[in-house]
Amino acid sequence: MGVKINPYDIVGTQIADAHVEEYIGFYPEKNGKGVKRHYYRYSDVDGETHVTTRDNLMKRKGRNDYSELIGKRYGKIVITKYLGRVDVPGKKGLRQAYECQCDCGNTVIITRKTILSGRINNCGHCYRIVKEEEH
Ligand SMILES: [Zn+2]
What we know:
Blueprint: E1 14-15, E2 18-28, E3 36-43, E4 49-53, H1 54-60, E5 73-74, E6 77-87, E7 94-102, E8 107-111, H2 112-117, H3 125-134
Antiparallel strand pairs: 1-2, 2-3, 3-4, 5-6, 6-7, 7-8
Residues 76, 102, 104, 106, 122-123, 125-126 line the site of zinc ion.
């Protein structure tokens, strides 16, 4: 049935927001239909791991190449570069993050999740400087 695949070919790769960590095995679906699926463990933008099927991972493909945020402006912040999964200070595990340029001249690294939440509008440092000057 179907085309023979090498189930390990996507291990270690990034598919949209999922980083495929591990191939778990070929198991029947949990819904009881008995159809066997390739299952994988992947980590999401938060570094949390989940288990899903190869089909579900493949559906994500092409959904996002992460460049769609480049050049976008959020308040004083302009997103300049996708950094991939990096160690972000103050966050546990590897996070998908962007290099961003603030109007104050600061370059900051902001996680994709934070950007998508829409809660950013400056680098955080310039805001503090302004506050201090107000005293
Ligand atoms: Zn700033």
